[in-house]
Amino acid sequence: MKIIVQKFGGTSVSNHENRKSVVNKVLSSIKNGYSPIVVVSAMGRKGQPYATDTLLSLISDDLKEKNPLVTDSLMSCGEIISTAVMCDELAEMQINSVPLTGGQTGIITDENYTNASVLKVETENIFNILKQGKVPVVAGFQGISNGGFVTTLGRGGSDVTAALLGAAVNAEKIEIFTDVDGIMTADPRIVRDASLIEEISYNEVFQFADQGAKVIHPRAVEIAMRANIPLVIKNTMSECNGTIICSNSTEDSSSVITGITHMKNRDQIKISYEDNKDNNYYFEILDSLANNMISIDLINVFPKEKIFTIDHKDFKKFQSLMIKMKIKYTFLLNCSKIAIIGSRMRGIPGVMAKILRTLVRANIEVLQTADSHTTIWCLVEDKDAEKAINALHKEFKLGQ
């Protein structure tokens, strides 16, 4: 049996016209000899009646905080509605299908409500449905605890559902259908000539997802990577081949850079030893931040100074902690972390120098840098972010 998992996002199932396109994608996979497993999100976005955020507005914030079990029970409804509606659309084209909740699919989780971790995936039920020649239509984003309670997998969890099922049934590939043609070299809202990346490695796309590009959930990439199953990002409304994500990108490119993304709302923190040399808490700063759930990145630790960034949402908590520890520091708000991503840059000298030269030429101050085998990060002020991305995109010839 040649199995394919096809996941359709909220916009793909939001109305009858879009759902017709979904049915065509399912039909096409059947005609190509696949046995499809369909995973669906809740229909539409906030404001539409069955979208997750709309459902959440039905209960108080106080109850959401005090009783996450109730929250999960409510949030799971949107995807369940989608399975029934999608089965109706498939029936019109004589496709036999079976709607399944996450629990009925065999996704067993812990009881960390609203962000559950998957313990195992039991495949007996889904294989029985496939053997009958029927299409399982699975509610994404959810599972069931060992105690029998509905759980959800965190925002973007339908991607995770698709990857989990793909790995569990050893699918040929996992297709993630959305409202874009695939992964682009940069955000097309920022860079007009951003081009489609036809093939990309797991490691590269993980960096894209982790650094702010909202194309696919990072956990889904991790799961597919461990199982070595290709992921394909495609547009429900077009026939574009999309972006293939696999273990090793073979795309022939003259550029060592695959693409550029960025994260806004970063605050840069500098803590000098000279300003705090009589304070023993200076040597406990990083541990204290971790203990207080303040995540830091772009970390540069020198003998006489520590420099790092935090998310702006954590800034007030950070301030309170520093007051408590009597730590002196300086800060710069409203920064953006630009990530220049490319597995081909590994071992190639001069890439960082080229990046810095490009930004200096564009009169953009680089506040901080860091690098790994596949990514170089540059911190700039928010006001310079779009200019920097366009300059780098042009310099590395990533355009159409």
What does this structure look like?
The protein is an alpha/beta fold. It folds into 2 domains: 3-179, Acetylglutamate kinase-like (Carbamate kinase, 3-Layer(aba) Sandwich); 259-395, 2-Layer Sandwich (VC0802-like), CATH 3.30.2130. The chain contains 13 helices and 18 strands. It has helices at 16-31, 52-56, 61-66, 68-92, 102-105, 124-131, 157-168, 202-210, 218-227, 285-291, 315-325, 351-361, 382-395; strands at 3-8, 35-40, 97-100, 107-109, 118-121, 135-139, 142-145, 150-152, 173-178, 199-201, 231-235, 243-246, 259-272, 296-302, 305-311, 330-341, 368-371, 375-381. Strands 3-6-2-1-9-11-12-10 form an 8-stranded mixed β-sheet, with helices on both faces. It has a 6-stranded antiparallel β-sheet with strand order 14-15-13-16-18-17. Helix 7 (157-168) runs parallel beside helix 9 (218-227) and helix 8 runs antiparallel to helix 9. The model has no long low-confidence stretch (mean pLDDT 92).
In short:
This protein is an alpha/beta fold and 400 residues long. It has two domains: 3-179, Carbamate kinase (3-Layer(aba) Sandwich); 259-395, VC0802-like (2-Layer Sandwich).
Indicate the topology:
Elements: E1 3-8, H1 16-31, E2 35-40, H2 52-56, H3 61-66, H4 68-92, E3 97-100, H5 102-105, E4 107-109, E5 118-121, H6 124-131, E6 135-139, E7 142-145, E8 150-152, H7 157-168, E9 173-178, E10 199-201, H8 202-210, H9 218-227, E11 231-235, E12 243-246, E13 259-272, H10 285-291, E14 296-302, E15 305-311, H11 315-325, E16 330-341, H12 351-361, E17 368-371, E18 375-381, H13 382-395
Parallel strand pairs: 1-2, 1-9, 2-6, 3-6, 4-7, 9-11, 10-12
Antiparallel strand pairs: 4-5, 7-8, 11-12, 13-15, 13-16, 14-15, 16-18, 17-18
